[in-house]
Fold each of these.
Amino acid sequence: MTTMSDPQQGSFRLSMLLNDTRYRSYTFQFIALILLIALMAFLGINLVRNLAEAGLNISYGFLNVPAGYDINQSLIDYNSQSSNLRAAMVGIINTLLVAFLACVTATILGVIAGVARLSKNWLVSKLMSVYVEIFRNIPVLIWILMIYTLMTAVLPAPNKFRGDNATSSMLFDAFAFTNRGIYIPAPVWGPGSMIVVATFVLSIIAAIIYRRYAVSLLFRTGKLLPMGWPTAAILLVPAILMFFVMGSPIALDYPELKGFNFRGGLQIGAPLIALWLALSVYTGAFIAENVRAGIQAISKGQTEAASSLGLRPKRVMNLVVLPQALRVIIPPLISQYLNITKNSSLAIAVGYADITATLGGITLNQTGRAIECVLLLMLFYLTISLSISAIMNVYNNSVSLKER
Amino acid sequence: MSDTHAASVPYVRDTMLPQHAPPPTAQGPVKWVRESLFSSIPYTILTLAALYVIYLILSGFLPWLLGGVWTTSNIRECREVLDGVQAGCFSVLTERWNQLLFGIAYPQDGYWRPTLAFVLLFVAVSPVLFSNLPRGLILFTVIYPFIAFWLVWGGSLLVPLSALLAVVVGYVVYSRIVKTSFAGGLFAGLIAGIVTWFICGFITPSLSGVLALEPVASRNMGGFMLNMILGVICVSLSLPMGILLALGRQSSLPIIKLICVVFIEFIRGVPLITLLFVANVVLAYFLPPGTNFDLILRVIIMITMFASAYIAEVIRGGLAALPRGQYEAADSLGLDYAQAMRLIILPQALKISIPGIVNVAVGLFKDTTLVSIISMFDLVGMIRGPILASTDWNGVYWELWGFAALLFFVVCYGISQYSQWLERQLQTDHH
């Protein structure tokens, strides 16, 4: 067969580069490669010339120079004499913090809204549709700025809490909602507190082992052990006992009004809350749609078959519908987490010190190292998104239907 | 035996009762309310909670909206008129209406130009959106970009006309040669277009006064107009680029595939803000010394790259969803790659991808607000910057943010409703 269609060897003509499918692909790739190299060379030469003209060079030395600016919210030690690298680390940790918090709340919100949208209760499902449509169709930047405005312009200033005729008061004497942020009690870890924590961790492991054992017993013998109260007991009782045995080592430090501001407690700044809430409600609306689509993707026959086996509605949901729906829900859910992480870069609009605001904002402006800063910024986000998509691929492979 | 059976049926009914209406509680609105609102105790609690939430929202919002003031010239007057009542101060909208829509620097007497361009936009996109309109309208769609450019940016009409001429010449050349070879036609058309544009470049400067509108620099664009400009231009440019990228990613040529994969993954892996930073502070380093690119043009390039990577992924999904048989059918007809793609694969793949493309378009339009972070005065930038910073309106937050939210909601919700309508229209299976 091949001998018939093979043209004679040795009769290569130049026009065959364009007209013969065997060579044409090489021609196109060659052209593409040349164009790419030309473009790169053009950009590179321009870069070298521009840098030479401006008397600059590519150098990362600026990372070790003292940053010279303060950061209002930092989980690690930082002051204005710390290096730019340290500032960037603070930014990275802050980015991860707000992304993590927002992922958790957005998931909770999204699952509730998505399930409620499928509710047979007309009013609830309509209310959730309105929530989803409103939040999906308005830019997240506007939500962030709106909630930031709410935090800074509407909530009372700390001095409103002062005096005998104070216009504002603290909730339970523990929470203060002010325009500088929310003050909550902070845990103080006394000596021996580690033992309590360790006990709690051990009881979590014990609870998991108990549940595993109960399930395997159910599968082996058909005997169903109670799940709810033993789990709660295993989780709480040892930790509480240990807490009193060690003499109450963990205390709460309540915020108190001293001078012009609150002292003590834990301050969650207004920018963090604005970013956290806005990302949660915005992405929650998208997650709600994913959850709804996932549950609707499970055919009604599955529910009916499960009910005809005599399973109660809660069991139908837990044992039949959800395991199948999760397969549909989780991949888009993970890309929503990725979106949250990327959207957290909007922190710069409200002055939350994430990596975009420190490395890409103040450090860039102060040192003028635009290329290096933007490059590092991109590398950071690229690393995060590539690792998340790697995790997603592993997950997808593990749950995908094994078909022949 | 039959006797016993007959005896066991002492009475057989021989008349029918007339049909009765169902009881009032099992029909009409009563039944609906019972079933959908109060079917069980938890549902009743849920309904009451939902009603309470709705009451809370409306009782706070409606008096604020309906009791608002629309005619004062600054916030102090407004507060005097309101006299302590909690109500909106909407006069900021009426007083700064033009700034919100057109930005600060656009010439006052030229507001009709972007407005006209905006109205014509609907005429131009309608033949694309609705297939039952007369096909001749598509000609207007083709010339619309040139008209819109002339209206918004001003200058001599000859500039967009020569661009149009270049496109027409390119198309004529392309349609002559495409019958023999698609690639040849494409390159010849491109070259002919560029040559025409180049030749026109010698003529237009000498006739710069012909049919000239007052030229407006890009940096003077602002307000919601800037969001619209960025959104429309970037979506329409990123669609063809996205198609090319998707085809490149699916192609069997390793080098081209590698280029496309790296591009797409890189762009999708970083937030738009970093790309805007690139447009703002880095791009200048990569251009020949002395080039002075408009910031708006740099931003358009970056947003287009961003959107095209996402559109490419959507279209890749559409391509992957097509049954293998469609590709094989195209091959068996003896079509070459370009023909198969143009005539068989892409129309179907694009149809499948419509919801995804619309999602990207809506997301992109929302993302145009991010340019306010690199100090461009789009709608959000106008509100955050000049308006809230002015002593006249410092403190009027909710009216402004509500207005911005409403504008975006109307546009985005409209687009997504259109896409759902289109999906129903394009359904070819029999469901």
Amino acid sequence: MSTPKRWPAAVYGEGEEPDYRFSLANERTFLAWLRTTLALIAAGVAVSVLELGVPEDIARGLAALLLGLGVISPAAAFLRWASTERALRHDAPLPSMGGLAVALTGVVLVAAAVIAVVVVRA
Amino acid sequence: MSEFATASPRGAQPERTALSWQRTALASAAGAAIIARHSADTLGLVALPLLLGTLGLTAAAFVLGRRRYDPDLGLRARRRDGRAPFALSMAVVALALTELLALTLGG
């Protein structure tokens, strides 16, 4: 019986099967990133729909920023999942968070600042 | 190789992970419905194939996410690969792109 091929080969082509608990934790981390992305998209929709009392250009810019991050984050989350799984299979150090966490923190701080301005002006 | 690597997943870990798959897929499907409704005014009928495509990817991830933890040992190695993560990632990217498109065209 032939062994079924697993995709992507860049992850599963080499190395040994890691402790399954680490693989499952890696998947749950990936899924948590996706849910965080869904929250960012929801925030983008809310900013574009709700009347915040700030100039429209700022509201649209913030919405575009949140939605743009909603495009980038899932791709980054998948690449991060793949590189982590690959590192686990090679028993190598896990990859760093990279710029994604920094970018996400920056956007959340900008959104918080806009909300603070809205609340103070109200 | 770790002694756990050859053992079958047991305990609460597979169940917890399967539930995580399901709630993420359901949240994506709900998001797709809301965004399709919201962007329909701007995008018109274009929103429909985007919604159906996103729902299709979400459904694929839901099914693949469930099947990854099927007790059938013979197929487990095949099931737990990168297809389901990729499908769900693309579904969420499609969601964000749809709303971004509606925001851009909405003037």
